[in-house]
Amino acid sequence: MSAIAGHFSYGITVFLMVAGLYILMARANLLKKLIGLALMQTSVYLLYIAPGKLIGGTAPIIAEGFERYSNPLPHVLILTAIVVGVATLALGLALVVRIREAYGSIEEDEILERED
Amino acid sequence: MVDHLPALQVVLPLIAAPLIILVRHRGFAWLTTTAVSYACLVIAILLATRAGGGGAISYAIGSWQPPLGIEYRVDALSSFVLVLVSLTASFVAPYAHRSLGAEVARDRHYILYAMYCLCLAGLLGITITGDAFNIFVFLEISSLAMYVLIALGQSRKALVAAYQYMLMGTVGATFYVIGVGLLYLMTGTLNLADMAIRLQSVGDVRPVFAALAFITVGIGLKLALFPLHQWLPNAYAYAPSMVTAFVAATGTKVSVYVLLRFYFNVFDPAVVFEELPTRETFVVLSVAAMIVASLVALYEHDIKRLFAWSSVAQIGYVTLGIGLDNEAGLTGSISHLLNHGVTKGAIFVLLGGIVLRMGTARVTVDSIVGLGRRMPLTAFGLVIAGLSLIGVPGTAGFISKWYLITGALDRGMWWVVAAVVVSSIIAFAYVWRVVEAAYWRPPPAAAEPYGEAPAGMLVAALGMVALCVYFGFETSFSIGGAREAAHLLLGSAP
Amino acid sequence: MKSDIILRVIAKLLMPFTLIFALYVQFHGDFGPGGGFQAGVIAAAAVVFYSIIFGLEAGRRLVPGWVVEKVLATGVLVYAVTGLAGIALGGNYLDYFVLDADPVTGQHRGIFWVEVGVALTVSGVMIKLFYMFAGRSREPEDA
Amino acid sequence: METLTINVLLAVMAVTVTAMALQRNLFGVVVLFGIYSFLMATVLVALDAVDVAMTEAAVGAGVSTVLLLGALYLTGGTEAKPSRRPLLPLALSIAVGAVLVYGMLGLPGFSDPGAPIHVHVAPHYLEASVRETGVPNVVTAVLASYRGYDTLGETAVVFTAGIGVIALLRRRREKESR
C-alpha cells in the first residue's frame, strides 16, 4: 500500500508540473500563463514534502508521548518556496495590469501585433 | 571584523535597500548605493587576496556548522566572480545619477536604487553561498529585482520584455528547485560540499541524472544558453541604460558560475562529461550561439538590440569552454566572464550617454550618424570596446578567445577554431556598421549638434573602456585568477 | 457595501480579535504551528477586510500608505540588524548564542526579533499589495 | 487510512487542475485555483506539514486568490480561443514530465525510514533543537535559527516584490499624498 501511495504522490507531482508547464507555454492569455506558472511551482511542494512523511509519524513539534516525527527540513524549504511563489505572482500580476493598460489587451498575439 | 567579510559582502547591499526605502530621498539613495558598491568591491578584493593560492574561506552563518546551517564559502572561483560583480557595480552606480534622470520618472528613482542594491545582494549571495537552497533564495532576490528594473524602461515594450523574462526566469528557477529537490532526496543534505561527498555513494543514479538535466535547463534559461535565450534581447534593449549595463555585465555570468559549480564540484565530472554527451551538447550549442546570434546582430538596426544579440553570441564563447572541459578552455571561459563583462558593460554605459544626449531610448545605426564629431570621446570608447568585442590583440576580448582556441586545439577540434574565427569576423562586421555610421557617414545638414555626455557618466564609461585595454595586457588577475579557478574545478594542482 | 450596517458593525468587532489572533500566531510559533509569516498575513487580512467594508479611502486613513511603506522596510532592517548584533557581540552573522549570557535564552531572543522582522515586512507588503491593486481603476484615467 | 486520505485528495487535485486547463472563463479558473490551494493545504496537513499547510491556506487560497481576482477585475475576464494547435508545448511538457518520472523511479520508497533525508541532518534537528534552541516546534527552530539566513533571504524576496509592485502600480499624482 505504501509503495503505491508513494508512487501515486509522485505521479500527481509530475502531472501538476506538466499541466502547469503546458498551460504556461500553450495559452496566450498572460493571466492564464501566470496561473500555469503558479501550478508548476506548487508541484514542487509535493516533491519535497511527500517523501518527508513517515507513516505513523506526527508533525515535527516535539512533545511528550511522541517518538516518530516527520522530517521538518522540507517543510522549512517549502515555506520559503511558497513565499517566493506568491512574491513572483504578485509581481507578475502587476506587470499584467500595466501591460493591459499600455496595450489594451492581455492576449499575447494581439500584443505582438500592436508592438510595431 | 576581517573574519566577517563574507557575511558583510552580501549583508551590506541587503541592508542598504530597506534603508533607501525608509529615507526615501533620491540623493541619499544614490550616495548609499554608490558607497555600498565601493564597499563591496573592497570586500571582494580583500576576499580574493585571502582566498588565493588554493585556499578557501568557510563562514558558518549563525555559528551553525555545515551541513546543519548555511555555509558561506569563498574560493578561487567564487572570489573571481565576486570581484567581477562588484567591479561592475562600482562603475555603474556612480554613473546612474544622470542617466536615470533622463530615463525614469523622478519619484521612482529611490525605488530603482533599492532594487539595484537588492539585485547586487542577490548576485553576490548566489556566488558566495555554499548551500544549494540558499542559491535559489538569492537567485529569486536578484531575479525579482531585475524584472522590476527592466520594467521601469521608458517604452511599453519594457513591460512585455520584463514579463517574458519573468516567465522564463521563474520556470528556470523552478527547474533548479526540482533538481535540487531530487539531489536532496538522494543525499539528505543541501550543503554543496557535503552533497558532493554523499553523491559518490548514492543508491540509484537515475534521480541524479534527472537532477542534472533539470539544473542544466533551469540555469540554462537564466544564463541564456542557446536556444533558451529568447528573453535576453528585448530585456536588454528596453531596460533603462544603467540597468542594461549592470545586468548585461553580471546577470548571466553569475548563472554560468552556478552551472560550473554544479558540473565540476557537486556532480562527479567523470559522470557529467564521460558518461553523458555533455561535452558535445555544449560545444554544438555554443557554436550555434556564436554564429546564429552574431548573424542576427549583423542585421539589427536598433543598437541596443544589436549588442544584446552580440551578448547571446558571447555567452556562446563562455559555454564553449565548459564543453571543452580542459584547463585552457575553462580558463578561457572564466576569464571571458570578466573580459566580456567589462567590454559589454562599457558598451552599454556608453550607449546610455548617447541615449541621454539624443533624448530617445531608441538609438538606431542610422541615428548615430556623425557621432564621431558630435560625441568624440563616446565614439572613440565605442571603437575600443568594439575591438575588444571582436577580440583584437591588445584588448581583453583577445586574451580569453586565445585560451578558448588553445583549448579547442588541445581537443583537436579544428572546426571549433574555425567557428571562433568566423564568429569574430561577423563580430567585426557588426561593429564596423556602428563605426562606419559614427565616423564615415556625413551627418545630415540639419542635424543639431549635441555635446559629449556629462562628465560623471563619461568617467565611468571611459574607466570601463580603459579596463578593456588594461585586461588586454595585464592578465595577472584575469588569467591568473581564472586559471586558479580552472585548477580548482578540474581538481588538479596549480 | 458601505451602507450595510451589519457588515460594518461586524467588521469593527472583528478587527481587534483578528489582530489578537495574529499576535497569538506570532508568539505561539515556538510551540505550535505559526510564526512571523502567518501572523503577518493575518494582521494584513484585518486591514484588508476593513478596507473592503469601509472603502479603500477609509482603510488608507486608518493605515496610510506611507506608514505601510516604512513598516515593510523596517521589517527587513530588524531582521538584518539582528544578524549584525551577532557580529557586534562577538559571534558570527545571525549568531543568536551570543545575544545573552545563556545561549538558549540568546536563541530565544534572536528568534523573537527575527520573527518580528518577518511579520512587519509580510504584513506591510500584503497591505501594500492590496492598496496598489485596489487603487488602480479599470481604465487609465490619468494617462 | 492515512495514505488513502492523501491519495483521494491528490486525485481531486488532479481533476481540479484538468478543469483549470480546459476552462476559458478566467473567473472560473481563479475560483478553481482557490479550491486547489485549499486541497493542497489539506494534503499538507495529512503529510504532517502543519506550518506549511497554514501558510498555503493563507497565501495560496487567500492572498493569491485575492490578487488574482483584483488583477482579473482590472484586465477582463475571458481568454481568447487559442489560434494555433499547441503541439510543441505539449511535446515539450511531456518530455519534461518524462525526465521527472525517470528521475523519480529511483527515489527511495514512500515513508522509508532509511531514506537519506531521514538519516542525515534532519535527525539532528529533531533530536537537538529543544536542547540547542529551546524551541519545541522544530520547523520554527530550523526556519529562524539553523537556516535563519534563508528566511532573511525570503523576507528580502517579499520586500522586493512589495517594492516592485509599488514601482509598477503607484500612480504619479499619489506621490506626495502623505
Assign an overall shape of chain D.
globular
Q: Which residues of chain D sit in consecutive blocks of at least 5 with pLDDT less than 50?
A: 174-178
Mean pLDDT of chain D: 88
What helical percentage do the residues of chain A reach?
over 70%
Please, what is the average pLDDT of chain A?
88
Highest-level CATH class of the largest domain in chain D = Mainly Alpha
Sheet with the most strands, sense and barrel status of chain D: none
Oligomer: heterotetramer
Give the overall shape of chain A.
Answer: elongated
Give the N-terminus to C-terminus distance of chain D in angstroms.
Answer: 57 Å
Q: What is the name of the CATH architecture of chain A? A: Orthogonal Bundle
Using the 3D structure, state the CATH architecture of the largest domain in chain D.
Up-down Bundle
Number of strand segments of chain A: 0
Give the total of domains of chain D: 2
Query: What's the domain count of chain A?
Result: 1
Most extensive interface: A-D, 83 and 92 residues
- Number of separate helices of chain A: 4
Radius of gyration of chain D: 21 Å
Total beta-strand segments of chain D: 0
How large is the radius of gyration of chain A? 19 Å
Structural class label of chain A: mainly alpha
What are its keywords?
heterotetramer, B: 494 residues, mainly alpha, two-stranded antiparallel sheet, C: 143 residues, 5 helices, elongated
Describe the structure.
The complex is a heterotetramer of chains A (116), B (494), C (143) and D (178). Chain A is an all-alpha fold and 116 residues long. Chain A has a single domain (2-115), classed as Helix Hairpins (Orthogonal Bundle). Chain A has four helices and no strands. Chain A has helices at residues 2-26, 30-49, 72-103, 108-115. The radius of gyration of chain A is 19 Å and the shape is elongated. By secondary structure, chain B is mainly α. Chain B has a domain at 278-494. Chain B has a two-stranded antiparallel sheet with strand order 1-2. The longest helix of chain B has 32 residues, at 327-358. Mean pLDDT of chain D is 88; it is low at 174-178. With 178 residues, chain D is mostly helical. Chain D has two domains: 1-79, NADH-ubiquinone/plastoquinone oxidoreductase chain 6, subunit NuoJ (Four Helix Bundle (Hemerythrin (Met), subunit A)); 113-178, no CATH class. The A-B interface holds A 17, 21, 24, 30, 33-34, 37, 40-41, 44, 47-48, 51, 74, 77, 80-81, 84, 87-88, 91-92, 95-96, 98-99, 102-103, 111, 115 and B 133, 136-137, 140, 144, 147-148, 151, 156-157, 159-160, 162-163, 166-167, 170-171, 173-174, 177-178, 181-182, 184-185, 190.
